[in-house]
Amino acid sequence: MHTIDLAYVGRGLHEELAAYIADQEDFYASEDVHVALRDGCTWDEERLRRCATIGLGRALLSRLTDGTPWVGLSVNTHRPLFWFLARSGLTSLSDLAGRRLAVHAPHTAPGCFTRIVLRRAGLDPDRDIKTVVRPPGDYGMDLRRLREGEIDAALVGSTMAPEAVAAEHGWEVLAWVGDHFQIPTVGLAVDPTYTDPDGPAVQAVLRAHRRALQVIRNDPDTTVRHIQTFLGGHTADEARAHYKTFIAPHFTIDGQADLAIGDRAITAVAAELGVPATVTAAEFYRTATTTS
């Protein structure tokens, strides 16, 4: 049996769903690979690059900013699962002007994506908004701060169904990042310095993940059952509604990247980071190397 370390660098459905299904449905075992899932959320890049990683956004930022030769081998979705959740009284992104927004740091993938979306809405994230920078997590503290009035809005991820949370508290979902910025994101990436993209362990993981993506697209009942383990604070109906709106229509079935979307995204990310776009989508998203 082959072995591989696979690190996630964020939490929630966006990051973990395909790998979780591959594990729980024994797709890894049937492909004769032992996958050690590792929490790499706080790892530095040097440690992370010695594993395969799910976080394509972080890998792309690293390749652009420090030249780490990450390559993406499989893509789960082109629409990042992050939302702007706001207290009552705010109804659009433009309403964030002068408000307090809890958000990831600018050098992180979700932080960078957020800044791109805010700029497209006509807001300068450094001047027009009072940002409260916090590390990735389950966003529970953000909900508390919203309830207590310490912040006006928060960028939240897929550890919750934000539309259900908003309905429960009388809040607003101002926008879904995936509606405003597309990028081939989450899946499988490796640094060829340490991990052979064509090696048997990597190829086995790719086959298992492609099987998981097919479950996500074609087997709602199984997928929703697994989603409920992530959305423990939600009802089955809320989990199913979240799946139908944000996951089923937007996850790939074969792990392939749309290179036109990828090139536009790389240009936007590089501009936001203030670095040259030194890699093309075809060079970074080598998804055609996946095997049957």
UniProtKB/TrEMBL annotation:
Any Pfam family: Phosphonate-bd
Superkingdom to which the source organism belongs: Bacteria
Main location: periplasm
Keyword Repeat: no
Keywords tagged on the record: Signal
UniProt-annotated location(s): Periplasm
GO CC annotations on file: periplasmic space
Ranges in a coiled coil: none
Family label: Belongs to the bacterial solute-binding protein SsuA/TauA family.
Protein name in the entry: ABC transporter substrate-binding protein
Lineage summary: Bacteria, Bacillati, Actinomycetota, Actinomycetes, Kitasatosporales
